[in-house]
Amino acid sequence: MNLTIAVLTGRRPDLLERTLTAFTDHHPEVWGSAVRCVMHNTGDDATRQVLDRYDWDLRHTTNGRLLPIGEASQILGQQVEEAGTEFVMRLEDDWEAHPVDWWEGAVQLLDTAGQVRLRRHDEKVMGRCAVCRNQMLWVEQDGHRVTKDAHYTHNPSLMRTELFLTLFPYRDERDAGRKFHGQPAAQHVPGVFSHLGGDGKSLKKNGGRR
Q: Is residue 204 part of a domain?
């Protein structure tokens, strides 16, 4: 598949376990064929124990404070560059995969889009571009949706690695979005991943990555 799965995690072992279990259960061929890399933010022992149950091609651990998402993402980007595949799927530790046939459709969408969003299409997301504030107007393409007005997102997505790496270095998601701005984006339908980080578990509320 010429794919790197790039996982960012830390201090949420229960959510990480759900993320990895769902992915490997529902998409074993994708998982087994990909280069698997992980950035373990803080090096906490509970997360390490979950990661140890899986095989990783590239694994980086930071010890100490929880790095902001932008800073942690720079390390993840270095791993993606080292992996050297054509495609990259970024995945944080609070997303549950569903048994959806998505790979071929998502790759085809990259012929016309810079980023293919893999979040379930029926989950609520921002309606305006975070950079230019234009309303995101989606049009159907082969059963999926495309737009010229979407921002870059850290939500699960598929990108060509060459374009993904042009976003680095960046300070945070919005800074990456400014570099991505002008690229068309696509939304896979029905999408693959549901968000698990609610109920106070999002590290955005705790000075963390999101």
A: no
Of 121, 182, 123, 124, nearest in space to 151 by CA = 182
Pairing of strands 87-92, 157-160: antiparallel
Q: Which domain holds residue 157?
A: 3-195
97 backbone dihedrals φ, ψ, rounded to 5°? -80, 145
Report which of 92, 124, 70 is spatially closest to residue 197, judged by C-alpha positions: 92
Does 209 reside within a domain?
no
- Look over the chain and give the mean of its residue pLDDT values, rounded to a whole number: 93
Return the percentage of the chain with pLDDT > 70, whole number.
94
φ, ψ of residue 87 to 5 degrees: the values are -120, 155
Backbone Cα Rg of the chain: 16
Structural domains of the chain, count: 1
State the residue for tokens 């159907």.
140
CATH number at residue 71: 3.90.550.10
- The per-residue pLDDT for 197 is 74
Rounded Cα gap, residues 99 and 139, in angstroms: 25
For residue 20, the 8-state DSSP code is H
Nearest to 156 by CA among 48, 14, 3, 2: 3
